[in-house]
Amino acid sequence: MLEPKELRKHPIFKKLCSEAAKAAAKYDMLHEGDRVLVGISGGEDSLTLMHVLDHLRLRAPFKFTLCAVTVDMDFASFKVELLRDYCLAQGWDWRCVTLAGQELLKSKQAEERPCALCSRLRRGQIHAMADQLGCNVIALGQQLDDLCASLLMALFRGGGLKTMGPNVPADGSTKRLIRPLCTIRKALIHELALLMEYPSIRSCPYEEKLKEDGDRAYLENLLAQLDAHFGDVKGAMLTSMSDVRLAHLLDTRYLSGTETDAGKL
Asked: What 3-state class would DSSP assign to 97?
């Protein structure tokens, strides 16, 4: 496991921090006086996000504060004590809220397809904790692979051309959801996770089943196949998601007919 001084100097961590800082600046994620709630599930994405933001906090030309929050869904497989000990050992301001998630999924007969309800329950608790702690920003750990899979999910399910935005207003614009890892590939985060030797925390008891027949796992495998054919398909998708040409789609709200690229964002 990398010690704090080693971590700050390691090229992988430096690259992660550089990319996250660029994304934060480009998408106007952080401001003076922000109080940021960081969602910590115990997975490598969220733990890496907290390490990166804690590093940026010390070096930013303005002040913002961080609070790590975990929603414990009371799954028997979730080792919340390991996560607690890790977060406190880093000196992080860590809080935990517990919800009877397993019972709720069972009562709603959602155990076969748990993700939508589980996500909604977690989101509700995160927003409630943000209100309680006076946080105006919620930082989430989704990375580029997640954004690409979400874009395809929405496309194939008829949900519109959309993905997880890097800086999204929430609760009547009283809060913002930010995703500082949005331009970073999962593989780079995994490299750091191996070096950091994060504690093994299984937060989802449905993980194996979802890997077998879940939509997101299917799309992740599809992206790997596309990458083998096209090369750097996620990088190409990032470029395309950053170059939206509304007049070249079929939404009648953006019909123009005057300029070739009318409606380009």
From this structure: strand
